[in-house]
Amino acid sequence: MQLSKHMPDSVTIARILSVCGELKSLMLRKEVHGQVLKKNFECICFVSGEVVKLYGTCGAIDHAKSVFDAIPIKGSMTWTAIIEAYGYNNRCQDAIALFDQMRSGGFNPNHFTFKVVLSICDQAGLVDDACRIFNLMHHRYKASEELYTIIIGLLGHFVRVEEVQRSVQMSSLCTHICCIEPIFINSYF
């Protein structure tokens, strides 16, 4: 693209960053990040989020955090990217702390943020944190059926039957009860 004198825009760069997540080499990832800096795309929220993911998925969490810290205007996308990076690197307590920091900083989590955080809680067995976050989500934000399904699976996985029943009653999933049983049963295996 550059050889033909066509300059990539921010959407193209974000897509390239997403694809580069498959690269195993930290050096190549740094080169791609260098191109982002050279083109001055680091100020664009979704591009910065992809750079954070780029480093987070190869275990370079310190690089991911320094990119995140340098982002002048953070949004839910960049916060979710750093939370996911910490979870990906089994730094689950740090990921939950970042989620709490996000909220205390006045940023509202979106559907994907909740999905990432609940998945991290499931991965690490942080059932109490998952319940706290789920209750926050239920009372302050609109929870989707997908998020109810995640929390029901998590609670079933850790055999918290009463909380599963309470979650089902709080959700609109009561009308889809035939969908609940397989989720709950599969969570045992």
Please describe what this structure looks like:
This protein is mostly helical. The chain folds into two domains: 1-108; 109-189. The chain contains eleven helices and no strands. It has helices at 10-20, 26-38, 45-56, 61-70, 76-88, 92-104, 111-124, 127-140, 145-157, 161-170, 177-186. One of its GO terms (molecular function) is RNA binding. One of its GO terms (biological process) is RNA modification. PPR repeats lie at residues 75-109. Keywords: Repeat.
Keywords:
mainly alpha; 11 helices; 2 domains; 189 residues
Write the layout of secondary structure elements.
Elements: H1 10-20, H2 26-38, H3 45-56, H4 61-70, H5 76-88, H6 92-104, H7 111-124, H8 127-140, H9 145-157, H10 161-170, H11 177-186
Helix pairs in contact: 1-3, 2-3, 3-4, 3-5, 4-5, 5-6, 5-7, 6-7, 7-8, 7-9, 8-9, 9-10, 9-11
Keywords: Repeat
Pfam families: PPR_2
GO molecular function: RNA binding
Rg, alpha carbons = 19 Å
Q: pLDDT below 50 for ≥5 consecutive residues: which ranges? A: 173-178
CA-to-CA gap between the ends?
Answer: 48 Å
Helix content: over 70%
Largest sheet: none
Task: Specify the number of helices.
Answer: 11
Overall residue-averaged pLDDT value: 77
Structure, briefly:
This protein has 189 residues and is mostly helical. The chain has helices at residues 10-20, 26-38, 45-56, 61-70, 76-88, 92-104, 111-124, 127-140, 145-157, 161-170, 177-186.
